[in-house]
Write a structure and sequence with these properties.
The protein has 3 domains: 232 residues, Ribonuclease Z/Hydroxyacylglutathione hydrolase-like (Metallo-beta-lactamase, Chain A, 4-Layer Sandwich), CATH 3.60.15; 100 residues, Oxidized Rhodanese, domain 1 (3-Layer(aba) Sandwich), CATH 3.40.250.10; 94 residues, Rhodanese-like domain (Oxidized Rhodanese, domain 1, 3-Layer(aba) Sandwich), CATH 3.40.250.10. Helix 13 links the parallel strand 21 and strand 22. The termini are far apart. The chain has a 6-stranded mixed beta sheet, covered by helices on one side. The chain has a 6-stranded mixed beta sheet with strand order 7-8-9-10-13-14. It has a 5-stranded parallel beta sheet with strand order 15-19-18-16-17. With 456 residues, it is α/β, with parallel strands linked by helices. It is globular.
């Protein structure tokens, strides 16, 4: 048995390619699925099954992409959700054979009611379990969130997760290797450790959630503040009905400067600048939205509007495929083009670029104390409540457009977050919508606290 982990930065999504003899399975494939086909060709195996751990909320699944390539492949997911695709409706303890490996499904409701784990037994060696793929049920040093099914059912889902963990997953031997669906940085857990795998024994000793009794666990879950983005509902829908095949989506065309200028006039068009934030602050095409290649994987779903059409202004044309994939992974499918000559071509045509002020923290502090600037904190409410600059206004990036009517366009503004990424994106969205006197302190709140400046 060979296991290959496919790590997707940004969303911190982990998927898995497992091969045994001449057969293979894929666990929770990403939508741009060519990487699994390449692995199948490399190992000279045929992908027999795709197993989904649950109806994912934070990314679009790639099961149908693989089935389009391998028509005999069967897709399996829980019978608890009425999926519009897939051949296998899984229940607890259902078993499958892949080469010399036995796959055993384990129903573990809590994060969602359709959450499944998959235990692997390498029968060529022994009948003992060696691996479990835990989806969003158990992470390294964390457990799944329980607020997404329905906030009114938060307590009930927390109770379900506690019992799934204590009565099923943690009954496994200490030596069983745990492969979760997300790593550090994912919004699917509060504090996932920077390890892409763990063991049952390690988590039993070190995971604080597993040291709680039921009442403590439920109370802690109810009080856990996590990022909630509107795009989760889009992914839930697409992962229920089955997303469109990428090959059926619009082609991404090379735009001239004239065509981009016309495109910018559309009310449902967005031009995305993928340069790093320092470059964007110095120079950018008017009315473009900043999503650097460092942040686009995570922030595209938070910042972009579903019904819009998208064109890229790339820092490097070689990044086109990755930039496009970052949008497709969160169900933003109407990607129509990229500016062929980039910012330099725009400037050579005689058109103007704009800049955005990078506020030094000392200057920002003095302006704020004098009442000469309004600080817009674009972090999530639970982050804001944990500490913020006095008199700052909370307008989370995930809901920035809803907050715009409450922000005065006539006075200077500074958007702030932890390290400058979210705030630059938020500031560019505000600027696109008429907030021209806006800047960003790129050192962010991390730099603010490092200087010893106070928060309330």
């Amino acid at each position: 048995m060979k296991i290959t982990t496919i790590k997707q930065d940004g969303l911190a999504h982990l998927s898995y390619f497992v091969s045994s003899d001449d057969e293979a399975i894929v666990i929770d494939p990403r939508r741009d699925a060519q990487i699994y086909i390449d692995l199948a060709n490399k190992h000279q195996v045929e992908i027999k099954y795709v197993f989904e751990t649950h109806r994912n909320e934070d990314y679009v699944i790639g099961s149908l992409e693989l089935q389009n390539r391998y028509p005999s492949l069967k897709i399996g997911h829980s019978k608890e959700t009425k999926f519009k695709y897939g051949e296998i409706k899984l229940g607890d303890e259902d078993e499958f054979k892949v080469g010399s490996v036995k796959v055993v499904a384990m129903h573990t409701p809590g994060h969602t009611n359709d959450s499944m784990c998959y235990m692997l037994i390498d029968s060529s060696v022994s009948n003992d379990p060696i691996v479990i793929f835990t989806g969003d049920t158990l992470f390294s040093n964390e457990v799944g969130r329980t607020d997404l099914v329905d906030i009114k059912l938060h307590e009930e889902q927390s109770e379900k997760l506690y019992h799934s963990l204590t009565e099923k997953v943690m009954k496994l031997p200490d030596g069983v290797i745990v492969y979760p669906a997300h790593g550090a940085g994912s919004v699917c857990g509060g504090d996932i450790a920077d390890r892409d795998f763990t063991t049952i024994g390690y988590e039993r000793v070190n995971n604080v959630w597993l040291d709680m009794d039921e009442s403590e666990f439920i109370e802690a879950k109810l009080n856990q503040g996590l990022i909630l983005s509107p795009y989760f509902k889009r992914c839930e829908h697409l992962n229920t009905v089955g997303p469109e095949l990428i090959s059926n989506l619009p082609c991404t065309e090379a735009f001239t400067v004239d065509r981009l200028e016309e495109f910018l006039k559309g009310s449902e068009n967005t031009v995305i600048d993928t340069h790093n934030i320092e470059y964007f602050m110095r120079e950018h095409i008017p009315k473009t939205v900043s999503l650097s290649m460092d942040s686009i994987g995570l922030l595209a779903g938070w910042a972009l509007q579903e019904k819009h059409s998208f064109v890229f202004v790339l820092d490097d044309l070689e990044n086109l495929d990755e930039a496009r994939a970052s949008l497709l992974r969160v169900g933003l499918d109407n990607i129509v083009g990229y500016l062929q000559t980039g910012v330099s071509g725009w400037k050579k045509s005689g058109r103007n670029t704009e800049s955005m002020k990078n506020y030094g923290l000392k200057e920002l502090k003095e302006l704020a104390e004098a009442g000469d600037i309004e600080i817009i904190d674009v972090r999530q409410p639970h982050e804001f409540e944990s500490g913020h600059i006095e008199s700052s206004f909370n307008a989370p990036l995930t809901h920035i457009r809803e907050k715009m009517p409450k922000i005065d366009k006539s006075t200077p503004k500074a958007a702030i977050c932890g390290v400058g990424l979210r705030s630059t994106t938020a500031a560019s969205i505000l600027k696109k919508n008429g907030f021209m006197n806006i800047g960003v302190p790129l050192d962010g709140l991390k730099g603010w606290m490092k200087k010893g400046y106070s928060l309330e």
